[in-house]
Amino acid sequence: MWGIALQRHSEVALARQLYQILREKMTDGQLRPGEALPSTRELAKQLALSRNTICEAYEMLAAEGYIISSQGAKTRVADGLQLEKAAPAFTENTPPAAPAIAADFQTGRPDIRQFPRHLWLQLLRKATNELSPQLWGYSGPAGLPVLRREISAWLYRSRGLAAEPQDIFITAGATQGLKLLAGEGQAMILEDPCHSGLRQVLQNRGISIYPVPVDRQGLQTGNLNRNGACAVYVTPSHQFPLGGILPASRRAELVRYARENGLYLLEDDYDSEFRYAGPPVAPLYSLDPQQVIYIGTFSKILFPALRIGYVILPRRLQARWRHLRTYADVQNPPFAQAALAEFLQNRKLDRHIQNMRRLYGHRRHILLQTLTAMFGPGWSAWGDTAGLHLAVEFPGMRFDDMFVRHCQSKGLRLATVETHCLRKGEHRDKLLLGYGHLEPAEIKQGLALLRTAFPA
Known about the structure:
By secondary structure, the chain is α/β, with parallel strands linked by helices. Helix content is 37%, strand content 14%. It has 13 helices and 16 strands. An eight-stranded mixed β-sheet has the order 4-11-10-9-8-5-6-7. Keywords: DNA-binding, Pyridoxal phosphate, Transcription, Transcription regulation.
């Protein structure tokens, strides 16, 4: 009847299939408004189904208003159901398959092969089993108190940064923290160059951006001016992407500027744990906790999929933060938070950082050594001896999108500093080489491919 064909071996129940078929016939006009449907007994006989199956399909149609039925009357199709056929879904042309990547110098990637996954899974299981029943519900937008206490203790012993646990708020990574802090339609001052992904996050929120140039020592504070911005985004401990450390005089000038103009400094401390010529740099936050919002993340230290970061907020912003986080996504899942708290408490994080600092320091040395071997003296490194990437200047070269595509055709993935610039043209001779996730052999293979991409 009506061309109804049911798939009797499908995982979709027969009643659901019948409901979908009849609904489609009503919306495309095959079954017209007011048209009577067969009785459940009659349709069951025609389709060789149980009457219960037909009743279930009719009940679904009636619940959603597709049919009208009443005691002693025929079941009929409701009015106003017909729809025009939807336009075909837009499909993009499938791009040609990219060549296999033999060497990948992407930035910001830790070596997750070195992470103690077995230990982490043990802690995750233990923390989940011991988590109190109330924390399986809504635990609030601030984060687990135990994790906030452990982050406070870790920041103090690793950086000398004194922050009260109640001022620390857990985030789903540094990017979420920035999105919540940046009010829609406002203006912000950004370093130039600055991470292009972060810039896109701000622009997607309608933020106006005022770029301030960066040199080998970071943000050029002498170029700040009164432009109505609500905040300055800065990476003072290891400027991304050029790698400079903001000197004390510029830090003081930046704090004075923030005070005089009534704005906040958003300090993104994304990878200062990995410094290879001395301890981590003291945060800008320590100069003025009421004017600086400190943003930290565990993505570079542990593994990106963890999605746990934190912000240290001045007290006057905390109520607003709780409101925004509550109506964004409420909270991070408590299980990973509890496991991370124990990872911090038993100093496993401290030891992991020490191990990775040695490993990354060695890989950085291999990268510099191989650059010299393959390119001679015709290059220079920018920035402090820290982090998971290196900015490399090749005087006289001009790296653009065509060069990046040329490298990709050879199986080499990398980025230019120019990609992260708002004002183009000043850093065309610089490449970014991420090395933290690469074995020495992979570093050497990648630089060999880079050498072949250079003009003869």
